[in-house]
């Protein structure tokens, strides 16, 4: 690794750049002799700002151009929010590190005129900006007096729209994104999982590289936080089984402590009238020792000693998905997909 020059790709948004720099900083601490160059790359998702995410349809909206740059060897790795990554990766690509997860929960940011209020006591007909079908479905269910409307643009744009346009009473965003931007103080309330299940992998950063670039895998491997990886493997297995994609009303909550992995998975109809929710647990012990040779499993690079628990975690996600499917999740998701497609026309 000595003295190597590393080219890093990133989306150009301020949040993406902050995320990329945090990964580069972590690498600089481990490999101070290397030099790092970050290239900002525009993606389709960044260019189309005025159409609701769920209506754009194409998957990997925010990742495709970055993967092309990787494939062409213009960059050695790219940093993503893992929640934006499709459950099946692009050909020849692999996730070579998953960093320690920050707060995975969602947050409500209210207009200053509603200072001191919460969702339950907002006036009838208050308008909340969110392009996440998951957030809207869960909150409509519990707070039928509120209205939800699309809001696009990067975080800066959204906060400006909230503060200045006067058409939103509040917006719902990920805590982690707000914190990374230095806007923790704008959070009015954190929405705990009993109010809003978070998105699969929300709050976790992941590093994508070429599948055959062993040197980069080795270099990035120390950044992997095993607790985060195990939780995200379970969550992604759940989403993959439901053929969720990233824009359907599916939420999760996982915990991995004291040898026990617990997962709650939820599925919602778009209007929030239907909810299917299931919690399951499995015993998982982190291995104290074992082979640190790098292997790949389900699109992620990991040390060989973690393979058995990675499989356990994946099985838990599959089991929760199987259970909610038995309870009728398929019908709910099918109806949601059809009405999303309908809106695209
Ligand atoms: C995905 C969703 C959203 C992003 C859908 C969802 C939110 C879209 C919106 C898959 N990606 O969560 O149900 O609010 O219009 C995104 C954010 C982050 C990564 C911002 C956010 C930062 C948090 C993270 C957009 N992608 O969710 O507020 O790193 O997990």
Q: What features would you describe in this structure?
A:
The structure is a single chain. The chain is an alpha/beta fold. It has eleven helices and 15 strands. It has helices at residues 14-30, 44-47, 53-56, 64-71, 133-142, 155-165, 175-180, 214-220, 226-241, 307-326, 329-344, and strands at residues 5-11, 35-41, 77-81, 93-98, 106-110, 127-129, 147-149, 170-174, 189-191, 205-210, 250-257, 260-268, 275-283, 294-297, 300-303. The protein is globular. The chain binds ligand DPM. Ligand DPM binds at residues 53, 81, 83-84, 130-132, 134-135, 173-174, 176-177, 199, 202-203, 246.
Question: Which features characterize this protein?
Answer:
alpha/beta; 11 helices; 5-stranded mixed β-sheet; 345 residues; binds ligand DPM; D-Maltodextrin-Binding Protein, domain 2; globular; single chain
Radius of gyration: 20 Å
Mean pLDDT: 93
CATH superfamily of the largest domain: Periplasmic binding protein-like II
Strand order of the largest sheet: 2-1-3-10-4
Examine the coordinates and then state which fold CATH places here, giving the name of the CATH topology of the largest domain. Answer: D-Maltodextrin-Binding Protein, domain 2
Order of helices and strands: EHEHHHEEEEHEHEHEEHHEEEEEHH
What's the overall geometry? Answer: globular
List bound small molecules.
Answer: ligand DPM
Quick description:
The mean pLDDT is 93. The protein has 345 residues and is an alpha/beta fold.
């Amino acid at each position: 690794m000595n003295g190597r020059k590393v080219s890093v790709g990133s989306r150009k948004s301020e949040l993406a750049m902050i995320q990329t720099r945090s990964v580069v900083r972590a690498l600089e601490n481990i490999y101070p002799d290397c030099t790092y160059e970050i290239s900002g790359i525009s993606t389709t998702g960044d260019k189309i700002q005025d159409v609701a995410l769920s209506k754009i349809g194409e998957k990997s909206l925010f990742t495709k151009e970055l993967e092309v740059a990787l494939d062409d060897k213009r960059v050695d790795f790219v940093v993503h929010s893992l929640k934006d990554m499709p459950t099946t990766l692009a050909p020849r690509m692999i996730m070579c590190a998953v960093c320690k997860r920050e707060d995975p929960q969602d947050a409500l940011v209210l207009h200053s005129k509603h200072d001191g209020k919460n969702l339950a006591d907002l006036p009838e007909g208050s308008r909340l900006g969110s392009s996440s079908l998951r957030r809207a479905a869960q909150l409509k269910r519990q707070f039928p007096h509120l209205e939800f409307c699309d809001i696009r643009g990067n975080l800066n744009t959204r906060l400006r729209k909230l503060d200045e346009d006067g058409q939103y009473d509040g917006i719902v965003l990920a805590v982690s994104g707000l914190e990374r931007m230095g806007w923790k103080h704008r959070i009015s309330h954190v929405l705990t999982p009993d109010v809003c299940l978070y998105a699969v992998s929300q709050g976790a950063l992941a590093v994508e590289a070429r599948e055959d670039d062993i040197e980069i895998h080795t270099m990035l491997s120390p950044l992997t936080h095993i607790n985060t990886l195990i939780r995200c493997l379970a969550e992604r297995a759940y989403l993959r089984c439901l053929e969720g994609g990233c824009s359907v009303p599916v939420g999760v909550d996982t915990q991995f402590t004291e040898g026990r992995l617990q997962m709650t998975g939820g599925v919602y109809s778009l209007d929030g009238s239907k909810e299917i929710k299931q919690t399951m647990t499995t015993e998982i012990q982190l291995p104290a020792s074992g082979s640190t040779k790098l292997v790949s499993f389900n699109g992620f690079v990991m040390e060989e000693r973690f393979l058995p628990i990675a499989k356990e975690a994946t099985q838990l996600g599959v089991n929760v998905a199987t259970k909610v499917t038995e309870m009728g999740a398929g019908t709910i998701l099918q109806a949601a997909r059809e009405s999303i497609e309908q809106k695209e026309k």
